[in-house]
Design goal:
homodimer, alpha/beta, 2 domains, eight-stranded mixed beta sheet, about 35% helix, AKii-LysC-BS (chains A, B)
């Protein structure tokens, strides 16, 4: 029988009633003839509670013990979901990560899945079991210790199971009904997309649209897993939600698929850096070693032999970056006059695979912002994305103007 | 290095502060030179919450899923305890049941421990680890599924580890400071015992003194594990609490060690049963098959060919017993005139290994009760115990009178 993977996030299993509602959706797919693998998160709030306890107990915690503690929430939901399905006369049982086993690297609290043997669960399907409920977010290391995949890791568990079992589709049930052209809270004209290409979703995910864990999209792209994002709080239908798929499966699409944004950015500038070959490498190696995730980079030649170096990074890494730069200055590795951190910035991006074949998207974006009187501080581009850093107070205005200008409220 | 097992119950690990306090006690034993195996329960209330969810989800639950769900509380405490010890610079790590592995039977939710291989943890001790924190109450079946040992099972986990690791002692930390001659809430003269024999503890445990799980005492007796019950809320000392040990280790003891009681009893009588060979077997087989735990049994010959059959069983099994007897009557297997259930009874027992060599204990007990005007409904005796069923309203009076008469407030 064809296999379907269904993943239910924390809000979709937050109470026994919601677990029952999710189980009913599973029952519908079983009735259609699917063998179903259900991946569950912890009941919402549970993982945060556990993480809080670990942090309070040991601020510099041993990641192996962190994993042993925080993985327990998913085990509870998996058992309760299996019991709920059994009550509905659907043959089901639960699996914890080590029982499958979900084999991962030993990188505790951010482990990567290496292998998921399918024989164990497949044998049960052949014996008449119809649903395997698997605790998401967790696995087991080569040393036999429990690992976790990082926050949002249950999405990755779901996609990895879909790949390992050659599933027809991987349905991600969440508290939103799909992927939107932009956040509906910022633009009332935001429209739900029926389909979006993996590459676009990947850019949106990493740009702060928190619908899917970035790694799950990467994995789905690599293994061509059809991924559907849909709400567990709306009517069930075969066309609900947004299908994340290969771009070949999308017949028509707008040049720009969506407008993403992030408020958690900061802009940092080293003023008048003594310029010499390799100075950029020196600066960004030091930042990387300090654990700063640099996003955009701009270099201006100020005068002969001096340069201004500007980058953006997450807000909460500014202190760390300042410390690293001060240390590098003190040790004489780099020289600069001044360091400026601007916390009041936001990043706004337009994303679309159509950009590959359409020119003028960047020019149009800059014109739209200019017409609104919005000054662009930093620009970066990729093949299918243009991002700008602007004053944070203009963020909503920029998103709305771009959404209008690219006519995202209309489908292709 | 000698191994010590320390078990902390739910109230002893109910909060992060209490876990810290428990960890400090462990640190003291490590400093003395012990390698310590710590067995932890779930934070108090957690297991009840999980059991509640399972019951609400599925009243006739699959015990395998029940075990998967309710075992998760111990995993959380084990990880938090290991982290707390690490914060105190004590080398420690946590183990879940399947990681040791604690091999059990497949009798889910009341599994028995079959084997605990010590090599895994011993190797870590040899590498410098000083504390192995093990999640209590759980194990793994031959099929690789999670099992639990029944409520209070962490006591049994602790004793089994003490036996497997040939531990010097097994310290059970709880919310009472030891085993008393009777419940101090019933008699103000109750005295804490410094030592008690396994056999006596076994009778007290099964008579409703809820300090230790009965099976843990059986196991300790079989493997000669020195068991100490002490409070985690009082000062640490080598002589604190009560030592449960072989009777040879107890130099002097009172004839009677303690007075136990239970309010959860009911007395049931079948009036005028048609008597024939094998009638008792028929009745008690039917009750046993209905899941009724019959405790005391009395048979009176009423008249030629007729008999009254009386037994006691837990209060909450009366309905079940009535159903079984009605069914047996209907199918013609047994005949009786009337069935009477008396819920207003209590069981009071005196226990002591000294009874083996001292006569007259029963006579004295009956005289004491008679002097107080208390009518005895049923009597049973074992080698070291005499139990009577009386009206519940006289229970406290009976306990106090017996405690006085046997001078239990004085040590031997």
């Amino acid at each position: 029988m064809p296999v379907l993977v269904m993943k239910f996030g924390g809000t979709s299993v937050a109470t026994l009633d919601r677990i029952r509602r999710a189980a009913k959706r599973v029952g519908v797919e079983v009735a259609k003839g699917y063998d179903v693998i259900v991946i569950v998160s912890a009941m919402s709030g549970k993982t945060n509670e556990l993480v809080g306890w670990v942090n309070e107990t040991s601020p510099m915690y041993d990641a192996r013990e962190y994993d042993a503690v925080v993985s327990s929430g998913e085990n509870v939901t998996a058992g309760l979901m299996a019991l709920t399905l059994q009550e509905m006369d659907v043959p089901a049982r639960s699996w914890q990560g080590w029982q499958v086993p979900v084999k991962t690297t030993s990188a505790h609290s951010s482990a990567r899945i290496e292998e998921i043997p399918s024989d164990n669960i497949m044998a049960k399907f052949q014996q008449g079991m119809r649903v395997a409920v698997v605790a998401g977010f967790q696995g087991v290391s080569p040393e036999g210790r429990i690992t976790t995949l990082g926050r949002g890791g249950s999405d990755t568990t779901a996609v990895a199971f879909a790949a390992a079992f050659d599933a027809e589709r991987c349905d991600i049930y969440t508290d939103v009904d799909g992927v939107y052209t932009t956040d509906p809270r910022v633009s009332a004209k935001a429209r739900k997309l029926d389909k979006i290409a993996f590459e676009e979703m990947l850019e949106l995910a990493s740009l702060g649209a928190k619908v899917l864990q970035t790694r799950s999209v990467e994995l789905a792209m690599r293994y061509k897993v059809k991924l559907r994002v849909l709400s567990s709080f709306e009517e069930q239908s075969d066309t609900a939600g947004t299908l994340v798929c290969d771009e070949e499966e999308i017949m028509e699409s707008n040049v720009v698929a969506g407008v993403a944004f992030s408020r958690d950015e900061a802009k940092m500038t080293l003023v008048s850096v003594a310029d010499r070959p390799g100075i950029a490498a020196t600066i960004f190696t030091a930042l990387s070693e300090a654990g700063v995730n640099v996003d955009m980079i701009v270099q201006n030649i100020a005068e002969e032999g001096r340069t201004d170096m500007t980058w953006s990074c997450p807000n909460d890494q500014v202190k760390r970056a300042e410390k690293a730069m001060d240390a590098a200055k003190e040790s004489g590795v780099i020289r600069f006059d001044e360091m400026i951190a601007d916390m009041d910035v936001a990043k706004v991006s337009v994303v679309g695979i159509g950009m590959r074949s359409h020119t003028g998207v960047a020019a149009k974006m800059f014109r739209v912002l200019s017409n609104e009187g919005i000054n662009i501080k930093v620009i970066t581009t990729s093949e299918i994305k243009i991002s700008v850093l602007i004053d944070r107070k203009y963020m909503e205005l920029a998103v709305q103007a771009l959404h209008d200008a690219f006519e995202l409220e209309k489908s292709a």
